[in-house]
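tmp note - AraC-type arabinose-binding/dimerisation domain-containing protein
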Amino acid sequence: MEIDKVTSINLYQATSRLKVVINESNFSGALTGWNNETLALHKKPNTTYTGFVWQGSAWLTTSQGEFVLQEGMYFMVSDQARLQGNGQGFVIAQPGYRGMFMLGGPVEQKGRLQYIDGCTDTLLIAPATLGDPCFNLLHIPTNTFQSQHTHPSFRVGMVVSGMGECITPEGNFELSPGQVFYIPKDSIHSFKTNQNDLRVVAYHPDSDFGPTHQNHPMINRTIL
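out:
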């Protein structure tokens, strides 16, 4: 299904019925839920799939072989692939981008970088070059009320653990483990926690960070 911007955050359950087409001015994507089934990731020109296993385990089969994904692991693949097993999670497809094959995780309990209002985040999949997509872990401590903010592009992700709320102009939305979310670009929102902390993973279709031909570790650390 194709959705319009109804609210500042749109929440779903990660089931096989979850198929959402995202069309924004600069980026598009297709969000798919996965739950104890086989999900075929078809090879398409310049399309990259990024996925996360929330619970259970899965097998990712690509032209490079078969890889086991445990709970809390993530992947990026631009090849034809098949995801199967007794796990649950989500996959986001982004056309117009060819990413590198990558596996990682499980995600840690807290982020390694400082974020707003005492939160932390980890760059799980970094942009290969400046402007490329990235995948992140966000940790929100207990008793946190984030400042209201926006993002210049959409965010798609999943609640990994904990409890909290997303505060928006349309109202407050309860967050619990296993929920998949889509936040349209420029949507005003913030996260709030009480006695429980909150962990989410989030996919960004772009970035203002990453190496360039003139600025990357290999060339920067080469002395002529």
